[in-house]
Amino acid sequence: MFDRCDRIWINANLATFDAGVGRAYGALTRQALAVRDGRIRAIAPMDSLGEVDPAAEVIDAKGGWLTPGLVDAHTHLVFAGNRAREFELRLEGASYEEIARSGGGIISTVSATRNASVEDLVRLSEPRLKALMKEGVTSVEIKSGYGLSLDDELKMLRAARVLGERNPVRVSTSLLAAHALPPEFEGNADAYIDLVCNKIIPAAADEGLADAVDVFCETIAFSPAQCERVFQSAQEYGLGIRAHVEQLSNQHGAALAAHYGAWSADHLEWLDEAGIEAMAEAGTVATLLPGAFYFLRDTKVPPIELLRQHRVPMAVATDLNPGSSPLASIRLALNMACTLFRLTPEEALAGATRNGARALGLDGTIGQLRAGMQADMVLWDIEHPAELAYQFGVNPIRQRILAGEIHNV
Ligand code: DI6
Ligand code: FE
Q1: Is 285 helix (H, G, I), strand (E, B) or coil?
Q2: Which of 75, 76, 78 to mutate to test the pocket of ligand 1 (most atoms within 8 A of CB)?
């Protein structure tokens, strides 16, 4: 227990997000938490603390709160260029779909990203990653999807892996080659899907560059039938499945993704009850992205109450990307999940801890404070965990801890 450990936090309040604790936030007050070999070894009330390893480093949390390290389970943070001009066009009245159909939107980021090297992408993307880390993010998912060719998709995934090697943060990668139709395949989407399934997915799997495969199932992107082929290929190569579905219209993509055992179905503004039932049955996480809802001035709120009724786990993420969610703040995403989608602060925080981990296929490893889990944690100067979703623009972080090591950013 505490007799053999590397480091101990004492006088800490814990928001464990361990459902087994049976209290809001999985809260345990006045605790000690011991770490050994990067994992949580033991948690115990201060007044029952027995013998302590004399070699262990003891850190007095002085009544601060420890939470699991925050998980941002949906980002497109690797890209080149920016879309400020498109923002102006939208303010002049053009819609996101109109801009996409006229060759702007995602495709304009594709041109800039194709012209960048791996090193360029790392240099351009690192400040966005660091912004997330500064707010307590210890695990982040990063997607490709602005390369749309074999070499450029792999280049993006390499940049994501390099970011994870150079920074104290866990990076999960998703191959989103089926994000938009590249211009050279105009009028020939099925041939592009052939390339994705027969060349890009096998190469990414072979080089260990992708943890999961993602798709954009939408009228301006790919049809359910095309997405299904991508899911089949992902399954064949043993990769996780996630999907952008029901963002701008109901294509019944969530039910399809759930049928293929998706870890997560994301956006979901247009999700219907059949989709929710399929997700509940498959254990697929609903990843909510209020930043995109906000930035596109959407009005259709995802069916939160039905998701609750069907006990579908909800994650909350930034969707950090240059077009629909230029949001490098998980704290603001938490606040938006409450103000715009009416999540409770506890639900929002569970969405960026326990359920974010599950959306990455990492539940049981990260996202909760529990013996045996990775010791990815944040020590906050707050009086109650709800403050993390309530306030934004101030950063009450005291320590950011990855695998038991303190790495303030
Ligand atoms: N949905 C989104 O909100 C992002 N991708 C997607 O499939 C937007 C990406 C972009 O506009 O660059
Ligand atoms: Fe996205």
Answers
A1: strand
A2: 76
Residues of the chain with pLDDT under 70: none
Is any ligand 1 atom within 6 A of the Cβ of residue 399?
no
Tens of pLDDT, residues 153-187: 999 999 999 999 999 999 999 999 999 999 999 99
What are the residue ranges spanned by the domains of the chain? 7-68+368-406, 70-359
Pairing of strands 405-406, 264-267: unpaired
Classify domain 70-359 at the CATH superfamily level.
Answer: Metal-dependent hydrolases (3.20.20.140)
292 Cβ closer than 6 Å to some ligand 1 atom: yes
In this structure, whether the domain defined by 7-68+368-406 belongs to CATH 2.30.40.10 is answered with: yes
Task: Provide long-range contacts, Cβ within 8 A and 24+ apart, for 91-97.
Answer: 96/248, 96/296, 96/323, 96/324, 97/219, 97/220, 97/248
**What is the spatial distance between Cα 296 and Cα 86, in angstroms, rounded to a whole number?**
12
Helix (H, G, I), strand (E, B) or coil at 81: coil
- State the pTM of this model: 0.98
Q: Identify the residue whose C-alpha is closest to ligand 1 atom 2.
A: 324
Q: What is the DSSP code string of 343-409?
A: --HHHHHHHTTHHHHHHTT-BTTBSS--TTSB--EEEE--SSTTHHHH--SS--EEEEEETTEE---
Taking the C-alpha atoms of residue 231 and residue 240, their distance in angstroms, rounded to an integer, is 9
pLDDT of residue 101: 87
The radius of gyration computed from the CA coordinates of the chain, to the nearest angstrom, equals 21
Residues 6 or more apart in contact with residue 207 via CB below 8 angstroms: 154
DSSP-derived letter for residue 329 is: -
Given this model, what pLDDT does residue 71 score? 99
Token reading at 5: 């450990």
pLDDT of residue 252: 98
Instruction: Find all residues with CB under 8 Å of 312, minimum gap 6, and list them.
Output: 276, 279, 280, 284, 285, 286
How confident is the model at residue 104, as a pLDDT?
86
The sign of the torsion formed by the CA atoms of 130, 150, 285, 406 equals: negative
